[in-house]
Amino acid sequence: PSVTSTVQASILTGKYPRDHGIISNGFFDRENLQTLFWEQSTNLVRSEKIWDSLKNKNSMLKTAILFWQNSMYSNNDYVVTPRPIHLENGQMDIWCYSKPVNYYETISKEVGEFNLMNYWGPFASIKSSEWITKSVQYTIKNHRPNLMYAYFPQLDYTAQKFGKSSSQVTDDLKHIDGCVGNIIEKVKEAGIFDDTQFLLLSEYGFNDVKDAIPINRILREQGLLQVRTINGKEYIDYEYSDAFAVVDHQIAHIYLKDSNSTSKAKIRSTLEDVPGIEKVCEEKEKQKLYIDHERSGELIAIAEKDRWFSYYWWYDDQRKEISNPDVGGIDDNSKAPSFTKTVDIHRKPGYDPLDLFIDPKRKCISTDTRLIKGSHGRPYDIESGEGLSTFLSSKKIEHIRKDNFDGHPVIKCLDIFDIVRKNFV
């Protein structure tokens, strides 16, 4: 699927999800009966990463990775990635995991501390990209790695909030262009510009959307998803549910208690009748999409181009608009779990783009799914151009694929592994 962790894993390994196992930004852990979302360990990626491949041939090679997914504990010389520490009182210390130990603290002394609030959530802004740029510049100046990856997420959030063709996206593109320019200038100052190849890319293209599909609520209405009520709040009961979905933008992995053909066919038929769902994939379709991995759901649903999946399962009638009439919220009497009101990316069984919208007076995020204007995740379409994104290289490369769109060659994210590797052969 065209989602962050999956595409980044394919770029770093040259493999499909069926091999590296990053089937979305999260998955259901069948052994422990829990959903795992935005886990950062590099060990979750089950294929050889580019730096391991290169260092096996040249152990003196220096590599760096800043803010990419699944980079913790990786065999890079320099690593920085957000890793806030959650405190007992509900607050958190904003911190970044880094390698070597205290590398983040060393950078912070020179460029200031990283502010997670600018990186994700309702206050996400270009300031996070500016800090990442400074950390990249610091690393180039002081360590001159042979290979470096850096990730700037801001454009993703802007497109979700305002739509892919909005003026806000255009403005942020200009800001990111400035950040890239500053990095290039630092490479020139370091005297390594002529020996450096820059690759600039986006993991996926966006679709404008109008509303969400509450797939878990639909499964509950069919008696397939069960809940447990704890202190008046409803939680998914993974033990007794026959089916539930872990959602990620425009795709949903549906995990089944009984995966026999009769049960699977019935649930598939139920989902195919849901307005907004374009396709439901079983094993053969998953194989064609290279996502037939043990972490994948027994079924995978793909939303229509203008829809996305919410993770919601509660359907009490006590939700109501909060102080801002344009931003929906959850009444205190709702049966929705408390984490639905907060930016809690690890406990939600799916990606929640509404984390980008909040009522500052009540410190409660919105549940109005109509606020989301852009989404992604669907498989790309070479004929229409849907899902295709940008790939730029500062030096000419030999195009590996013969595919083209509108006269431009198309490179798959898997190809980037070899494009990078050839610089060191």
Structure description:
The protein is of the alpha+beta class and 425 residues long. It has 2 domains: 4-207 and 378-421, Alkaline Phosphatase, subunit A (3-Layer(aba) Sandwich); 211-372, Domain 2, Phosphonoacetate Hydrolase (Gyrase A, domain 2). The chain is built from 11 helices and 26 strands. It has helices spanning 4-13, 17-20, 50-55, 103-111, 126-143, 154-162, 167-189, 215-221, 261-272, 283-288, 415-421, and strands at residues 26-29, 34-37, 63-66, 78-82, 85-86, 92-93, 96-99, 147-150, 199-201, 207-208, 211-214, 227-230, 233-236, 243-248, 251-256, 277-281, 299-303, 307-310, 320-321, 328-329, 358-359, 364-365, 374-375, 391-393, 404-405, 408-409. The protein has a 4-stranded mixed beta sheet, with helices on one face. Strands 14-15-17-16 form a 4-stranded antiparallel beta sheet. It has a two-stranded antiparallel ribbon with strand order 1-2. Strand 1 (26-29) and strand 2 form a beta hairpin. The protein is globular, with a radius of gyration of 22 Å.
Q: How large a portion of the residues is in β-strands, by DSSP E?
A: 15-25%
Roughly how much helix do the residues carry, as a percent range? 25-40%
For this structure, the CATH topology of the largest domain is Alkaline Phosphatase, subunit A
> Which geometry do the CA atoms define?
globular
